[in-house]
Amino acid sequence: GESVGLHLPTLSVQEGDNSIINCAYSNSASDYFIWYKQESGKGPQFIIDIRSNMDKRQGQRVTVLLNKTVKHLSLQIAATQPGDSAVYFCAENAGGTSYGKLTFGQGTILTVHP
Amino acid sequence: DTGVSQDPRHKITKRGQNVTFRCDPISEHNRLYWYRQTLGQGPEFLTYFQNEAQLEKSRLLSDRFSAERPKGSFSTLEIQRTEQGDSAMYLCASSSVGFGGEQFFGPGTRLTVL
After folding, report:
1. Number of H helices and number of E strands within chain A?
2. Phi, psi of A101, rounded to the nearest 5 degrees
3. DSSP secondary-structure letter at B65?
């Protein structure tokens, strides 16, 4: 079974700094990736997604980069604000027969100091 | 509010009791998903429906768990003979059919088994 990990990676930044959160995914067949933000006591909130035929996608203050060669995903948040403090999860979708299933990564705790 | 709703938000039960949770997806979404999340972990996929058909079930979904979506709208997740290991946040998400299919999550039901 999976090991229990209560020690999530953490990232602390000052308000106004840029933040970069990284994620390594496991399935080379995954063709769709999503970043979610989760605040305490709430469900995950969609931030941005990217398909496997793209390397980069930009949203409002956020950019997702995908490197399929090394199976790495990153989320860049520009001008980070205290309201960005949360746990951030990457998720992958393998498509095919597992089309509806998202597999989530471990999560990173982002703390933004005013 | 037209988001995904879940009921109840919190449930405390004694070991051995049965519990049932309800999820109401976004009205135009025909896919509905159940996930389980324990402290410090990302959500783990349990099952999903397209309309009323249950298309995939995780091996995490033991015989004590059953999910239904009888009319292709709301869904219920029942856990029979609850165990302390069932204590977790149970999340529901919905999406429209299509590539990727961004999943929108509800606030979750927090289950505590004493």
Report:
1. 0, 10
2. -100, 125
3. E
| B105, B109, B110: best to mutate for the A interface, most A CBs within 10 A | B105
Torsion of CA B110, B36, B46, A105, to 10 degrees: 160
User: What was the pLDDT predicted at B19?
Assistant: 98
What lies within 8 Å, CB to CB, of A92 at 6+ separation is: A25, A26, A27, A30, A32, A33, A34, A102, A103, A105
Q: What is the pLDDT of residue A3?
A: 36
CB-closest option in B42, B50, B106 to A105:
B42
Burial B67-85 (b: 16+ CB within 10 A, else e): bebeeeebbebebeebeee
Which residues sit opposite B12 in a β-bridge?
Answer: B112
| More confident call, A104 vs B102 | A104
Please name the amino acid found at residue B80.
Q
